Amino acid sequence: MGHGRAMARAQAHFEDSGRPLLRSAVAWVTLLALTAMTAACARKTADLTEQQARMRAEEIVQQAVAGMSPKPALRQHHYSSSGCTTEFGTAELDQVSVDYRLEGVPPSAARDLVRQARDAWVALGYKFQSKDSDGDWSDPAAAVFMHTRPDDFSLSAQNSITDRSTGDGIAYITVRSPCYPKPTESPSPSP
């Protein structure tokens, strides 16, 4: 059902009740709800191709590790370009996700590498996903969750503990693109 029809239906329901103030309030609430839903949907999709999404994700990973000390080697742990589920359900959308393991550094440095990724992203103006998304630095398994603005890529850096007694671990960086439209296939030429 279109936004205009939903609003008209809500308005017609309350016109019959003879309550103009209530009718006006319902119309405004309906309009605000529809505006918020439209804005949320627009925020969750991007005008990208898979190649553009991957290039931007790789750039964000490089930004995190550029100034790290000790300097880790990046080993791609996972890459995917797959269907994307928005808050409105599965749509004809894709999403890129890259996951790197930071290697070639002592296991005792993993937690500090997570903090360095966090600091690099903060310096670039990226935002925490929520007030609880900054790492609990008293926990050896610290993790941070951020996102870029205005392009809305999701970022995380985390320390996967390999030895709880020492806090040693392996650092990972994951970047996920916003949802973008799946490419359309061109129709086959007619013989």
Question: Which strand-content bin applies to the residues?
Answer: 25-35%
The largest sheet, given as strand count, sense and whether it forms a barrel, is: 7 strands, antiparallel
**Helix segment count?**
4
State Rg: 23 Å
Reading the helices and strands in chain order gives HHHEEHEEEEE
Average pLDDT reading: 77
Q: How does the overall form come out from the CA principal axes?
A: elongated
> In terms of per-residue confidence, which ranges show pLDDT below 50 for 5 or more consecutive residues?
1-43
Class by alpha and beta content: alpha+beta
Into which percent range does the helicity of residues fall?
Answer: 25-40%
Summarize the structure.
This protein has helices at 3-15, 20-43, 50-65, 110-123, and strands at residues 73-86, 89-103, 127-128, 143-147, 154-163, 168-176, 180-181. The chain is α+β, with helices and mostly antiparallel strands and 191 residues long.
Protein model, in words:
The chain is an alpha+beta fold and 191 residues long. It is built from four helices and seven strands, in the order αααββαβββββ. It has helices spanning 3-15, 20-43, 50-65, 110-123, and strands at residues 73-86, 89-103, 127-128, 143-147, 154-163, 168-176, 180-181. Strands 1, 2, 3, 4, 5, 6 and 7 form a seven-stranded antiparallel β-sheet that branches. The longest helix has 24 residues, at 20-43. The radius of gyration is 23 Å and the shape is elongated.
